[in-house]
Design a protein that fits this description.
This protein has 5 helices and 9 strands; from the N terminus they run βββααβαβαββββα. The two termini are 23 Å apart. With 152 residues, it is α+β, with helices and mostly antiparallel strands. 32% of the residues lie in helices and 28% in strands.
Length: 152
């Protein structure tokens, strides 16, 4: 993925089974964060952190969307269990994960998608990529970067 280029379009289901595409977020900045697996420790920290800061992102006109290869039912259970107010997209065929060139790593013999975040502006242009993200505090880094970018 190249900074300054249009982010690939997608048609994926969210945790409620509603089809979402890039154009659904037009006019808003989009934080699209890739996480390895629902209901695992780091992924839970990330979901809780984004939910806790959602009002701050809303004030900046930013949508928060998580994506993993888990299915809709898994996402629904994950959101319900932790009262997430963010949206999660299911990419079981890895169509967007592959189109966005997200890397993978092996852990205990299983391949997982690398924790990566894409910051996309209101016109669908990729503005920044965060790779090998640490779940703790990542939302604070994003808020600071977005506030800085929106000032210029």
């Amino acid at each position: 993925m190249s900074i300054g280029k249009n982010f690939p379009d997608f048609n994926l289901l969210n945790q409620d089974g509603k089809t979402r595409s890039l154009k659904d977020y037009a006019g808003h900045w989009l934080v699209l964060y890739v996480y390895p697996k629902d209901d695992t420790p780091g992924c839970t920290v990330q979901g809780k952190s984004f939910t806790a800061e959602k009002a701050h992102f809303d004030k900046l006109n930013v949508s928060i969307v998580g994506i993993s290869q888990d299915d809709v039912n898994s996402h629904k259970d994950f959101c319900t269990k932790y009262s997430f107010t963010i949206e999660l997209l299911a990419d079981p065929q890895a169509s967007l994960l592959n189109a966005a060139k997200v890397g993978q790593s092996e852990w205990k013999g299983t391949m997982y998608w690398n924790r990566t975040t894409f910051l996309i502006d209101a016109k669908g242009v990729l503005r920044k990529v965060y790779e090998n993200v640490k779940p703790e505090g990542h939302e604070k880094v994003l808020l600071a970067d977005i506030e800085e970018m929106q000032r210029h």
